[in-house]
Design goal:
heterodimer; A: alpha/beta; Rossmann fold; five-stranded parallel beta sheet; two-stranded antiparallel sheet; B: alpha/beta; 4 domains; six-stranded mixed beta sheet; flat
Chain lengths: 318, 475
């Protein structure tokens, strides 16, 4: 299996083609990152505005490599019992109840408490063994025999303590469970961390990762993305809408439209059977692209000129 | 950290490659320009380059950017740096682009001695190069001369001429100059022609060398200069800040505030050691019949400070006010609530303006609406008492920034006394030195008894200390 992965991630071109085959159009830098991540055994920290395909990248890599995707969504207050492992308390309790009689018999023979304790020590930690361990995403990722893609989503939402806790798994692909010891990865997973820069991440974490910044794509790349994601779209319309969105991104808005919004908008326009960008239609559907009332208002004034320019750039003059 | 650095350091040692000289030098340049690169990252960079190779410039750039630059700003600096560094050999066009050209140059020079013009011996050679306009050879000779005189040590732009001259001397410009002189004396047509050509060549060479030195200065000295300037600015008096430094100052303030915000921005909790929280323990263990598998200990939540700032924005204190506001608003996430007021003759609330607009513009706007008048403290405090006293509670820290010079108006210390009793803390920051408090129209000594903290504040350092104390104090 590892051999297979080595082959699939054999060169930067292979990565590019592979991701393309599962519908993720990546630029050169993204492919370089994935390639390096595999060859240097380093996690990738992906930063960038919302909706440019950070999470999607991890999903696509998983589906290209045919590996399970293990996803861990971070939030404030996330701790190791939810991320790494937990003891199956219920089961432990149940087993002690069931074994009560058995234990009673055993200890019935002893005379003093010291003796009973001595005997108890002889049984070692039956109740704190792998049978009673409930693996959470991180531990599960380490246990996958054929490798896995581990996605730690929105790491910036978690607490700083949790970030520190991740360091061991990120640098050495192992975790320490006090009762059992060090658990090492069977096959090192490919790790993606995503962040929306809600807060600055610590240097220690950044140092252990490759840092990939995905920005908004240029017109050419965006056109290719739309082409893959919205197959039925008219070519002329595609050119116009990409040009329109690119223009929109040069305005001063609270939240700029992202790739995911462009895709949504393209789908909407296809549903409306549009084959040309028209100012009225744009105005009606602008809420797909822009998510703030003030942004819609600000952009609204320039719709006519932008639509016109978009058409011109796509090669139409009315 | 150190263990893992060693760990990663050991692993590639088996596979062989040691960090190559040009890569190391490039990382030095990048570091100087402000990209933070740890030794572990240098090792990673080396491993990555080992995997990727030097062949493709774009891939190399992407790769190093992934490994070395860890934020958007750093990536920007890194890109500039990369481009600057790799255009260095631009007039040695025949050389391979990229890293390789350099070490080869040096090796050639050392091994063959071919291009190594010594002190005097290089003269005729240099003359020949100048006459033939042999750019490749000149580039090589220049690199070597630069190496020999230690050009990487350059640290100030005033040294440009010095280093240019030194490099040219090392390349053997003196004999050439002597030859020109001799030719001029001879004063025949042929001699004059040769002298002209030599002079032309010398001028070209000087331009190239100067260019080369300037680029070096940009790469190697930038970091040093910036650091030096930053240190200086941090302890410079804000009230007489030069206009051209203000932008840079804002950057510094933001950086400090961000750091503090990161440190204090979380909801912090303090454990009360050894006290079991029975209620929470029972609830947490409900699933297994409240048998306490997991114990929960009592904690105290540490509140983020709630801040109200009153800034004097009259002419005398305006400069300080904008930095205080900038500081506090960048710190936003470490504070639970912040309301700000600006006053000169009267007081108005400016929280709205500050929240809605970009801070730099907002400050300008505030200055233009209330600023630059003469201050009346008594009046302004009265405005505050009438309008906003209700919002001050026992959790509020009130910061007043002002020089306490009310132009001989009633200071209304009674309001400050009530405010002091009501608020958690009253901090007064005065940009004037202690020695001038109480002189002229200064009412500072009269306000002093009611302030929990009263301190001089006129540099970024002061500001940093005060805000840090405030954040710590909320424990």
């Amino acid at each position: 299996m590892t051999g297979n992965v080595d082959q699939l991630l054999g060169s930067i071109d292979a990565v590019e083609n592979g991701l393309g085959s599962v519908g993720y159009i990546a630029n050169r830098q993204i492919c370089t990152a994935v390639y390096l991540s595999h060859h240097l055994h380093k996690p990738i920290l992906v930063e960038g505005p919302a909706g440019v395909g950070k999470t999607e990248l991890a999903k696509s890599v998983a589906s290209y490599l045919d590996m399970p995707l293990i996803r861990m969504q971070c939030y404030e207050g996330l701790d190791e019992s939810k991320a790494l492992y937990e003891w199956k308390y219920g089961k432990q309790l149940l087993y002690t109840q069931i074994l009560k009689d058995k234990l009673g018999q055993l200890f019935g023979l002893t005379e003093t408490i010291e003796q009973a304790l001595e005997k108890l020590h002889g049984f070692s930690d039956v109740f704190f063994s792998h049978h009673f361990l409930e693996p959470r995403p991180l531990l599960r990722a380490l246990q996958q025999e054929n490798g896995a893609v581990l996605l730690i989503d929105e790491i910036d939402k978690s607490d700083q303590e949790f970030e520190a806790f991740l360091l061991e798994i990120l640098s050495d692909y192992q975790v320490t469970i006090p009762e059992i010891g060090v658990v090492e990865a069977v096959t090192p997973p490919i790790v993606f961390l995503t962040s929306n820069s809600m807060r600055d991440l610590g240097d220690a974490l950044k140092r252990r990762c490759l840092h990939l910044h995905i920005g908004f794509p240029d017109a050419k790349l965006e056109a290719r993305i739309i082409d893959t994601r919205v197959p039925g779209i008219d070519e002329r319309l595609r050119k116009q809408l990409v040009s329109f969105v690119q223009q929109l991104r040069t305005l001063e808005l609270k939240k700029l439209p992202s790739v995911s919004e462009t895709i949504d908008w393209a789908r909407v326009l296809v549903l409306l059977h549009a084959n040309m960008l028209q100012a009225d239609m744009v105005r009606d559907t602008l809420n797909v692209l822009l998510k703030f009332e003030s942004d819609i208002e600000a952009a609204g004034k320039q719709i006519d000129s932008m639509t016109h320019k978009a058409r011109k750039e796509a090669g139409f003059v009315d | 950290m150190s263990t893992s650095a060693i760990h990663t350091g050991v692993a590639p040692a088996h596979t062989g490659p040691t960090i190559s000289e040009p890569l190391r030098r490039f990382l030095t340049v990048a570091r100087g320009a402000g990209v933070r690169i740890s030794s572990a990252e240098s090792i990673d960079a080396m491993r990555a380059v080992d995997v990727i190779g030097f062949d493709d410039r774009t891939t190399l750039k992407d790769t190093l950017s992934l490994v070395v630059a860890k934020s958007v700003e750093e990536k920007q600096i890194f890109d500039d740096c990369f481009d600057l560094y790799f255009q260095r050999n631009d007039f040695a066009k025949s050389n391979e682009p990229g890293f390789r050209s350099q070490p080869q140059d040096h090796e050639d020079g050392e091994a063959g001695g071919e291009g190594m013009p010594g002190m005097g011996g290089g003269g005729p050679k240099l003359a020949a190069m100048l006459l033939a306009d042999d750019r490749v050879a000149m580039a090589q000779a220049m690199e070597q001369a630069a190496e020999a005189i230690g050009l990487t040590k350059i640290s100030f732009f005033t040294q440009t001429n010095l280093y240019t001259r030194r490099i040219m001397e090392k390349m053997g410009i003196r004999p050439v100059e002597r030859e020109i002189e001799a030719l001029r004396k001879e004063d025949s047509d042929a001699a004059n022609d040769r002298a002209d050509r030599l002079e032309g060549g010398r001028e070209r060479l000087r331009d190239q060398v100067r260019d080369f030195v300037e680029r070096h200065l940009a790469m190697f000295a930038k970091g040093e200069n910036e650091k030096f300037r930053e240190e200086f600015l941090k302890s410079a008096k804000l009230t007489n800040m030069e206009r051209r430094d203000q932008d840079r100052m804002r950057v510094i303030v933001r950086a400090i505030a961000k750091k503090l915000a990161e440190k204090y921005g979380r909801n912090r909790k303090k454990k009360n050691r050894g006290q079991l929280d029975t209620r929470k323990t029972i609830r947490r263990n409900m699933a297994w019949e409240a048998i306490p598998f997991i114990t929960v200990w009592k904690q105290k939540k540490i509140d983020k400070p709630k801040v109200m700032v009153l800034c004097d924005v009259s002419g005398s204190v305006a400069a300080m006010a904008q930095f205080l506001l900038l500081f506090l608003y960048t710190l936003n996430e470490a504070l639970s609530n912040i309301r700000s007021f600006a006053f000169a003759g009267n007081l108005i609330e400016v929280s709205d303006i500050l929240e809605k607009q970009d801070i730099d513009q907002a400050i300008l706007k505030i200055m233009s609406t209330v600023g630059f008048g003469s201050s009346n403290y008594g009046n302004s405090f009265l405005d505050f008492e009438e309008g906003y006293f209700a919002a001050v509670d026992s959790k509020t820290t009130v910061i007043i920034l002002g020089d306490g010079r009310g132009n001989h108006t009633d200071p209304r210390t009674d309001i400050i006394q009530r405010l002091s009793e009501r608020a958690k803390r009253l901090i007064w920051l005065n940009p004037e030195y202690r020695s001038s408090w109480g002189t002229g129209d200064s009412d500072m000594p009269r306000y002093a008894p009611y302030c929990h903290v009263l301190t001089v504040c006129n540099t970024i350092r002061h500001l940093e200390h005060i805000v840090t104390d405030m954040l710590k104090g909320s424990r």
